[in-house]
Each structure stands twice: as C-alpha cells, then as structure tokens.
Design a protein that fits this description.
The structure is a homotetramer. Chain A is about 35% helix and about 30% strand. Chain A has about 290 residues and is α/β, with parallel strands linked by helices. Chain A folds into two domains: about 90 residues, ACT domain (Alpha-Beta Plaits); about 190 residues, Formyl transferase, N-terminal domain (Rossmann fold), CATH 3.40.50. In chain A, helix 5 links the parallel strand 6 and strand 7. The longest helix of chain A is centred in the C-terminal third of the chain and has 24 residues. Chain A is globular. Chains in contact: A-B, A-C, A-D, B-C, B-D, C-D.
Chain lengths: ~290, ~290, ~290, ~290
C-alpha cells in the first residue's frame, strides 16, 4: 500500500474539512487517518482562529498522479489560502545525527532504525569527537568528524552544511550535541532541527540542568525535545517526560536517570516529525497523535 | 454557542469522511471537532474493517432544524448503512449514582459537577446504605435508600428501575457500589452503566483485589473503569490508571492509594461518556480524545 | 500499640546508627521503622556531611517514661550534638486550613481526615471568603471568616495568629489560599506552613501558571507542595506530580486537570509532614518514605 | 573507598538493628546506607514476623579483615538465627545474558555497562541465534551460540551450564530469551535468574501478551521483571512499569511501545540485584531503595 500525508494550516472557516476530504474522495482515495484542530482560544478575539488538519490516504487507486495532486492542491490552496505540506510515505526523510561523546541517544536512534521503528533514514552522523566513529560503523552509517573550536566555528559549520547538502538531509537531530549552533545555521534549517534538552523546560534552561535540579531539591526531573530556534532552549516543545527522584539521588544518579528520559523523549519526537504529525504554531507545536 | 455531536459507526468504505463533513458544511455548520478511526487491523481479512467517526459542529447558524437534521441523517444512514447517535450539547445526560458506604467516589463526582467539569447532571443517588444521605443532601441531590439482601434482590432492582425511570436517567454510574446487578438489569442498560473496579483489569478480577495484589507482590496497583456487561469485570474497558507500590505498603495502604486511583479513573471515564467520546466496539472501546 | 518517632539531624560521624538504635533497644523498645541518610555529596568537601535518621519504635513495654526519654535524649544529643524532634503518635498534630473560594483541596483534605488517612487533626478552617463556611460545617470543623484587604492586612494576620493560638495549631496548610502571607507571619511559623503551588516549580512561579504553561506550549503541567519561606514559591519542595497535556487543552482544561494534581500533591505532602517523614535541609527536604 | 554490603533476614525480635549497627561501629566501620523492614502484617498473628535489613559500610578503616568479618558474623548469626549474605563491592558479580534474536534488551544492558551504570560485569552472552554475535563483538563480550530444539534441550542446557561455570557466573539475565528453561536448570540457579516478561503480570501471563492485551482492549500495557521459578511467569516480581495505549495502537505498536518498557524494567531490576537491594521473601521481593 502506498499512501500520502497532507498537513494543512490556514485561517479557520467553514467547509475546510469537507473540501479536503471531498478532494480525497473525488479522486478515489481512501482516508486512513484524519484529524483536525481549530484553535478556538485564539479565536475568542472574534474572528476565527487557526485551523490545522492532517489527513493521510491510500493512493493505490488514486486517480490523480503526483503532478495531478500538486495541481489540484494548488487550486485548493488558493481558494482557502492554505499553508500545506504534502509527503509521500515512500519518500523517506533523510536524517543527520549530530553528537558529541555521549552515546546513549545515538545508540537509541540507530537501534530503533534497525528495528524498523522509523519512517525516515539516518544517512550520516556528524560529531566533534572521533569517539563515535565505531558506533556509526557498527550500524554501517557514514561518519564525519568535524572538530569545533571557538576559532574554527564558522569553517566547521560550513563543513557541516556541505555534508548535510551532500547527503540531501531533511532533518537534523541533535543527539546530545554539546555545541551551540550559530543563528545563521539555525535559520537555514528552521523547523528542521530537533534538540534534546536534559531538563523539564522551561525549568533549568542553560547549562548543567541536573546540578541546578539537585540544588533546587526538585522531586521530579525531566527531558524536553524541541525545535531549535535562535533563542537557546526557547524553541517550540515537541515532547516531554519526567521521572521521580529523591534526596537519595546525587547529581550522578540524576544524570543516569536522565539519560533514560533523554533517549525516550528524543526518539518519540523524531518519530512524530518523521510521521508528519507535527505542525509549528508560533512557539507551540500541534501534535496529531 | 449551541453545538451537536454526531458519533458514527459503520463498515469502512471510501467517501465517509467526505459525506459526513460535507453534510455539516452544506447546511452551514462549522466543524468544532472531527476525529475518525478505521480499524485496519480487522480489515486485514481483506474486506474493509470498521469505521468510526465523531464530529461536533456549531449549529448556531445551521440551516436545518432538529427534525431536519434527523431526516437528513436518516437518508445518510441508509446510504452508508450507518449506526449513529446524535446528541445536542444543550440536552444534558441525566446521571444516577449507585453507591454503598464508601464515599470517596461519590464526593469526587459531586464536587466535579459543582465545579462545572461535567456536561451531564447527577439527578439522583441510590444507595443500599443510609449513611450516604447526608452527602447527597449537602450537594442537594435527591437520595434514595434501597436496601438489598439475597431475599429482596428482585424487588430492590424493580425499585431501582422505577427510580431511574422517574428521574429519566440516561447513565448509571456504580461509584463503589458493592452489590452485583442482575443480568436482566444489566441488559436493560447496555452501554449505559459504568463501573469502577479497584484493580488493573484483567489482573485481580473479582473480590478483594488489593489483598490479591499484596499476596502476589506486585509493584504497581491500578483501577479500571469499564462498561458493565453480564460477565462480572469483563466489560469494555474505558479508562485505567496505576500507582507504584512497594513491600512497605500493607493492604490498608493499598486500599488508601487505590482510592485516589478509583476516583480519578471513574471521573475521567464518566466525563468521556458524557462528552460522547466513547464508542463500544465488541469488548473494546474507541475513545475520541 | 503506642509508638514514638525520633527524627535526628547532625554532622555525620561513626556510631550514630549504633548509638540511636542501642538507646531504643537498651530500654526494651522494638524498632518499627528505621531509615537513615548521610549526605555524602556535601561530604566530598573532605569532612563528613550531614546525617539524618528517622526511627520509630513501640513504647508499649519501654522501660523509660516520657520524662525519662527526654532526659536520656538530652544526654545523647549533647554527646553527638544532635538536632532532634520527638513525637508521640498519640499526640496528634493540630492542623489549620487556609483557603479562599476554590474548594477542591479543602474537600480533599477533609475527606481524607474523615476516612482516617491522617495522623493529625484539622481543627479550624480560616478563609477570606464566607463561601467555604458550609463545607466546614458539613464536616463539623470550626470556620473563621477573616477578610483580607490591602488596608487591613496587618489586622487580618493578627486575627489569624490569634485563631491559630486559640486552637493550639501545629501546622498551617494553605489549601489554594490566594493571599500572600507577610514575612513576619511566615517567620513565626517556619517549617510549619505547607503551600500548594499550581505549577511544576521552578517552572512558572508566580501568578497564573496555567496561562504561562499554555503560552509556552509545554506538554506536561504539574503541581508542587512546598514549605513556605519569605521568598514566594522558593521554599523547600516536599512533593511534586505532573500530567501530560496537549495543544487540545485550553487554559480552562489545564486548570481542571491541574486541580487533580493540586489536591493529590498537597494531601501527600501533608501526610508526610504529619507522619514526621520530612526534614528540612537548607532549601531541600529529606523525605523518609 | 572500599565498602561491604550485609543483607540480613531473620525472625523479628528486639535488638536486631542495635546489634547489627553496633557490630559495624565497634570495629570502626562507618555506615553508608542502612535500611530495615519488619513485616508487621504477618506479625499480626501475635508472634513477630520477618525482619529484613540491608546495611552498607565503609571498610577502609575497618579493624576486622575479611576472615574476621566472617567469624564475627557467624557468631551474630547464631545468636540471632540470621540468614545473611555479605558482599564486598570490589567483588563484582559476573553476569551472563541469555537472548534469542530480539536485540533491544541486550543493547540496553551492554550500553549501561559501558556507561558505568552497573556494579557487576557482563562476562558472556549465550544465544540460540547466531544473529547476536556481532552485537556481542561490538561490545567485546564473549559470545556462545547454543542452538536449542525440542530434541537437544538437555544437551543444550548442559552446554549452557558448562559455559556459566567456565565464566564463573553469579547471575543469569534472560534478555528476551524465547526458550523455557527446565525446572532442574531453574532450581540450580534459584534466586539467580532474572527474566523480563512483556506484560503487566499477573495479567497476560504466557504467550503473545501483546495480542492478548489488544484483544482485551486494555488502556495500559506493562512489563515485569521477576526471578525465575519452576512456575512459568509466577516468580517473585522485582520491578514493573507501564505505558498508556489507545485503540489507535495495533499489535505492532504495542510491541514497539513495549520494547521501551522491557529494557527499562529489566535494566532496573538487574541494577537492584547487583547492588544487593533485593531479598526474596516467599513469592515477593523486598526492595531496599
């Protein structure tokens, strides 16, 4: 079975669900998943709020070919002023992992790919440490060592951009990558970089969150996966999870417990992105489960 | 704003989402919520599986009146062989609470009603103990004391049925009601009785689940809200939740911790039913969140 | 069975566990619970860190009477420079609830007392709203209406202090009390005021945390019970819990979901305090489970 | 720092905590952790119940050598009729992993060892599939392929026993090993085999638990780590965890979500065993956290 996923965003108005589902039906598509969300809170301003819809259908017997679909959608998008993305499930997104020397998130993502959990494909691993090369090789993924220093940061990012281009990457995953990307790098990948922060944002943003957590004496720690924006740790949150801790847990314990949260949360976020279940709405995300 | 909720169930086929959303649109309804589910697993048999849809729309400017909606839907339902329920949000379901002498679930439901959490209205409390009368009176809900013994069980159920009829009840909630209802009673309220069982079903069905849990040495206990069927504790599960426990927790502790689970789980299940988010599919429930 | 609970805090050194358990044994006490904690992290400074111990024993056959116990403990405390509290389980702490107009936490605490979950006794309810009087009366608890305005704040607090004194209160629980207590009031009840904050501290301290959470687009909300200090929302955290939320949840939903967290977390914190399981260590709490 | 952990089990009586902590103190040991548990519920029979204690102390300056400790403990054990185990933290338990073809639990345990989470050491991997050899080699762990069929089961187990003996193994971890071990094999490793079952026991014991869960329509799935006994899936439970699921999740989704539970729960259980935090009490476990 071959399927396509359409994710739409526009100003709310009547007839949207009808028009989109009718489009699928008229050309003999069978809806596999359909979910919509109207942001009525913003709408309280009087005029309608934002409308979001994700619709996935079987195109095995669809009477439009891909160019026909594009054409038909461009008509629809003009009529309803749609902002949309269309993705064919047989066109797998190409993913790059950025990492430093902590391996748990990298192992986790690679193992999930090996076990067939992902729609996408991890095509390259970029690290500022040589250490991760053997992990990449074990999973037969190309590895690129790009050292980063205060001095060579620009050259390093040019090198990273070249690698991403060469591998035709669609999504960058920062799997505990301990370098801060420059605003220009981030802008060039808006909505396409996912980071895992090892705290329950907005609590403990910035450095050494587990030390901060220990100092504050919190009874729960967390991890947060978010899209990267120019403001560090301020991007739209995709997924979060937490674990209960106690006074018995020193910083080393929090780090250990946190590792389990980090890999779980990052992997879930990547999976949601690859299945086109995420829409960025200002500084929030709409998540179609 | 006035709205209506349509919940549909039928054999899956193409055009259902289009037809239903077009129906809403053609008569100037604005979709507030729409969610659908196609059971593709059962469909693996080759022919299509079951299709479920919940759609809620604003009828403030709807160009059909209620009889017009009924007429239009009957046409649709013949065309697509639909099994559907239609509910106007201004027609609040009328709820009866059955309870014995444990008050925590009753307090919880009454307090939530007082705080406006429910779409429905608790109209009567029926108990086999006098003890709960003062709770009912505190919240100004009619209270009916119906003692139940092995001897008078039939008469007691006739009395209960009469009370339910008198109060035009649509939903019966067993809020820790310690009597087993007869199969005939259950049949007469199919899909309209919600019970809270104080274990993580299917584990520890039957009597004294916390004692069973303590004996087995489980590290997690749970509670389960389900629709009542003729088979005790075997009905479609609506909602479940759990809590971690340890060897430190004796049966009394499990009972105490379990009370918090019971009221949370039961209240969530009742809320889902009252918002028409539940569809019974054989021995499972579809939950439109 | 009558029992006593000793909670000790001192500089760590060898022999403490032996000395304390030997004291219980020598006078024919049977240890019911014993737990200790040595803060080895702080100890990394070279010299020993802090030592904490909670020991509860059966005094049915104890060969020292209460004055004898006091005498023996004063000797021990001089020898080891102990900071300790001794509590007889038959001397129930006397609790005052402060509340405004939101009833869910008050109902929760009163119901738990009625169901025998607490070691302590709620002896008075103080509110700046008349509204809560009927709840107090339903549970037969004295109710005091103390209106608070910017002008009468000092007089109001004098009135509150007088009421607390009159009822010989040992613990003040702020059950969604929407007024800020003055530093002098807080100082006079150091370590004896528990507040529930409706966010996952340190995230969203201050006003309208659910609005803040909605704005930030977090995927999890929380509640935090803490001891009150002069710094608003900065006191030692006792207990926290969280719930998963989504873009579907508007502020009203977050408030509703949050209410369940607030009452659970506050009640657990109060219970821990009443069972003498809490020790304040700087800005953290040691929790003996 | 070198430390030793003593885990004691005996009939409850007065003076046990005093005697054990005094023993540590008298020979200049400093208590690092001490926790005890008296099973008062069983004690309700009138006579005392079971007493359990775990005490860990720094032996850097301990005035008894290892043989001296053994001698002193044998005296104590006679006096109090103690059942005890003594473990020096520098004597790492030697662990064997049994697995079939599903790699996630094996990767998880090996990665945790690599990241220093475990006190023990995984010294050999035994599998009935060749497939796992490369994983073992990547982490530089000896790998033994022992095919198992209905016919060769006895020979296979003899081979496995020989490998375990050769590697001086103390703990066998069944990391999704899909063969059932014979009663005689299990007896020879009583309390030294940990298995992960992919359901929330006692629910869905036996084969294909995720299919059973899907059929029953549960809203939560779980995983259970337990000691292996002659009765399949009936051994003492060590650790459990759960995840919320919905009607959207087909069997394949439950399997995927379950994998995350399995590796988390199994790893936690192994860690607890290696830190000597577990005591088997009939069919339950006492877990000293």
């Amino acid at each position: 079975m071959s399927s396509v996923t359409l994710v739409v965003r526009c100003k709310d108005r009547t007839g949207l669900v009808a028009a989109l589902s009718d489009f699928v039906f008229r050309y003999d598509g069978n809806v596999l998943e359909a979910d919509q969300y109207s942001d009525t809170e913003i709408a309280e301003g009087g005029e309608h709020g934002a409308f979001f819809m994700r619709i996935r259908w079987d195109i095995t017997n669809f009477s439009l070919d891909r160019s026909g679909i594009e054409a038909a959608l461009s008509v629809l998008s003009q009529r309803f002023d749609l902002d949309y993305t269309l993705s064919y499930d047989d066109e797998q997104p190409r993913v790059a992992l950025f990492c430093s020397s902590t391996p748990h998130c990298v192992y986790d993502l690679l193992l999930r790919q090996e076990m067939g959990e992902f729609l996408g494909r991890i095509v390259v691993i970029i690290s500022n440490h040589e250490k991760m090369r053997e992990v990449a090789e074990h999973f037969s993924i190309p590895f690129e060592h790009v050292p980063v220093t205060a001095e060579n940061k620009n050259e390093a990012e040019e090198r990273q951009q070249a690698i991403l281009k060469e591998h035709r990457v669609n999504l960058v995953v920062l799997a505990r990558y301990m370098q801060v990307l420059s605003p220009s790098f981030v802008r060039s990948w808006r909505g396409q970089i996912i980071n895992i922060h090892h705290s329950f944002l907005p609590a403990f943003a910035g450095a050494r969150p587990y030390h901060q957590a220990r100092m504050r004496g919190v009874k729960i720690i967390g991890a947060t996966a978010h899209y990267v924006t120019e403001e560090l740790d301020e991007g739209p949150i995709i997924e979060q999870d937490v674990a209960h801790v106690s006074h018995h847990h020193g910083v080393a314990d929090l780090v250990r417990i946190g590792r389990d949260l980090e890999r779980q949360v990052l992997s879930r976020a990547v999976r949601l992105h690859l299945e086109r279940r995420l829409v960025i709405d200002g500084n929030r995300t709409i998540v179609f489960r």
